[in-house]
Amino acid sequence: MKTYRLLINQVLCDGCGNCQKSCPINALLLKKNLLSENTAAIYVQDGKAHEGAEVCDGCGVCVNTCHKKAITIQMVE
Ligand code: SF4
Ligand code: SF4
């Protein structure tokens, strides 16, 4: 099964939070009242974005949203 790994450049990231807000997986979890730092696909903590739980589907929305071009997606077999 393919999964996706998020690589977030911690130097470029300014913690704006747009990736966290734009992620459809996070939106779905929020709708179900299940969104937390333990469940999110991507989240911001201490001013930087971090890869979250193993729920990212590789849609690329966060990559396109990031104005700092700080996020890349890697496919993992
Ligand atoms: S959108 Fe980019 S700059 Fe903003 S918090 Fe996410 S990774 Fe960082
Ligand atoms: S690639 Fe899609 S599912 Fe994965 S963290 Fe980014 S917006 Fe969310």
Structure in words:
By secondary structure, this protein is an alpha+beta fold. It has one domain (3-76): Alpha-Beta Plaits. Helix content is 23%, strand content 26%. The chain contains three helices and four strands. It has helices at residues 18-22, 24-31, 61-65, and strands spanning 3-8, 42-45, 48-51, 71-76. The strands form two sheets. It has a two-stranded antiparallel sheet with strand order 1-4. Strands 2-3 form a two-stranded antiparallel sheet. Strand 2 (42-45) and strand 3 form a beta hairpin. The N and C termini lie close together (6 Å). The protein binds iron/sulfur cluster (SF4) (2 copies).
TL;DR of this structure?
The chain is of the alpha+beta class. The chain has helices at 18-22, 24-31, 61-65, and strands at residues 3-8, 42-45, 48-51, 71-76.
Q: Would you identify the CATH architecture? A: 2-Layer Sandwich
Count structural domains: 1
Largest sheet: 2 strands, antiparallel
Query: Which hetero ligands occur in this complex?
Result: iron/sulfur cluster
Q: Within the largest sheet, what's the order of strands?
A: 1-4
Helix content: 10-25%
As residue ranges, the low-confidence spans are none
Report the CATH C-level class.
Alpha Beta
CATH fold-type name = Alpha-Beta Plaits
If you average the pLDDT, what whole number results?
Answer: 96
State the separation between the terminal residues, measured CA to CA: 6 Å
Give the CA-based shape. Answer: globular
Tell me the strand percentage band: 25-35%
Note the quaternary state here.
single chain
Q: Number of helical runs?
A: 3
Gyration radius over CA = 11 Å
Order of helices and strands: EHHEEHE
Computed structural class: alpha+beta
